[in-house]
């Protein structure tokens, strides 16, 4: 907890210090230089957006942590969730000329909280976009009716040299069937040694390039909490230079 507060404060202090610095500059020697003023205002907008992203993710993390031990009650239509996320992210996909392939069944309904599961899909797909080069492909597949074994081991790793690591695993109820969501990118991939730390709060892989928006390091921690609450599983496969697949499996609604 103490670490968390120190990290959160540090993350917020950096953009805040930058804003304070630019305000001083704008009041001082950049006052009569319209070109410099425009450039500095652009940077200030970026820093403000970064603080907004951090605060939104911190609030979201605190909400999901609070109800992690309360089982979700509702039903969530996973096909509709993936379609909504794809539609919402259309502008980001277009901005980076990334193609999204969807491979989905007619229907897949999980026991769960629709908003939280939307957040899971959103975070994974946003990462796939963020950590892909321009012009790349991102693929989302959804399978349904799987046994625990099939959901946990969906075939061989996706390419030679890829490593697989489980980030969250539920206790199994006999006879339970699962839906499996996989989000694949062909980005830079992640070295084996970093995989186990991905869902730690504020952890970012050193030197990982991320499109225009720098990440907060909270997205996968949020995903892990939500998946745990839903008694689901969460895993990553990745090969440096070839890409990554993040997969989540969730118990189907009865
Ligand atoms: P962030 O907001 O930084 O993306 P996340 O918790 O979502 O935070 O991810 C943690 C770190 O894991 C990222 O900073 C990045 O280094 C790495 N990562 C996440 N998804 C991918 C991906 N699809 N490809 C490569 N690296 C990834």
Q: How would you spell out the order of helices and strands? A: HHEHHEEHEHEEHHEE
Which structural class do the helices and strands define?
alpha+beta
- The overall strand count is 8
Distance between the termini: 38 Å
Range of helix content: 40-55%
Largest sheet: 6 strands, mixed
Radius of gyration: 20 Å
Strand content: 15-25%
Poorly predicted regions are: none
What is the average of the pLDDT values? 94
State the shape.
Answer: globular
Secondary structure tally, helices: 8
Task: Walk across the major sheet and give the strand order.
Answer: 2-4-6-8-7-5
Hetero groups in this structure are: adenosine-5'-diphosphate
Protein architecture, described:
The structure is a single chain. The chain is α+β, with helices and mostly antiparallel strands. Helices cover 44% and strands 20% of the residues. The protein has eight helices and eight strands. It has helices at 2-27, 34-66, 78-88, 90-95, 114-130, 148-152, 192-195, 219-229, and strands at 75-77, 99-103, 109-111, 137-146, 163-168, 178-185, 233-239, 243-251. A six-stranded mixed β-sheet has the order 2-4-6-8-7-5. α1 packs antiparallel against α2, α2 runs parallel beside α8 and α3 packs across α5 (114-130). The model has no long low-confidence stretch (mean pLDDT 94). Residues 123, 127-128, 131, 185, 187-188, 190, 198, 203-205, 208, 215-221, 244 line the site of adenosine-5'-diphosphate (ADP).
């Amino acid at each position: 907890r103490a670490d968390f507060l120190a990290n959160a404060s540090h993350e917020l202090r950096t953009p805040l210090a930058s804003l304070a610095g630019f305000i001083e500059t704008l009041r001082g020697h950049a006052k009569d230089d319209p070109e410099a003023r425009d450039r500095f205002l652009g940077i200030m907008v970026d820093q403000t957006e970064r603080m907004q992203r951090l605060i939104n993710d911190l609030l979201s993390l605190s909400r999901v942590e609070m109800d992690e031990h309360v089982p979700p009650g509702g039903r969530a239509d996973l096909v509709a969730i993936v379609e909504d996320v794809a539609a919402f992210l259309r502008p980001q996909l277009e901005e980076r000329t990334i193609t999204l392939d969807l491979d989905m069944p007619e229907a897949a309904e999980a026991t769960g909280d629709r908003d939280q599961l939307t957040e899971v899909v959103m975070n994974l797909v946003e990462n796939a976009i963020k950590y892909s080069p321009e012009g790349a492909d991102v693929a989302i597949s959804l399978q349904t009716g799987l046994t625990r074994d099939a959901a946990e081991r969906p075939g061989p790793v996706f390419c030679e040299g890829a490593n697989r690591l489980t980030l969250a695993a539920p206790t199994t109820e006999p006879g339970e069937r699962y839906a499996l969501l996989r989000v694949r990118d062909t980005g830079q991939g992640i070295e084996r040694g970093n995989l186990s730390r991905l869902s730690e709060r504020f952890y970012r892989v050193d030197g990982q390039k991320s499109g225009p928006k720098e990440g907060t390091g909270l997205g996968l921690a949020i995903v892990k909490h939500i998946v745990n609450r839903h008694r689901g599983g969460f895993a990553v496969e990745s090969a440096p230079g070839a890409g990554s697949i993040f997969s989540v499996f969730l118990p189907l609604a009865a």
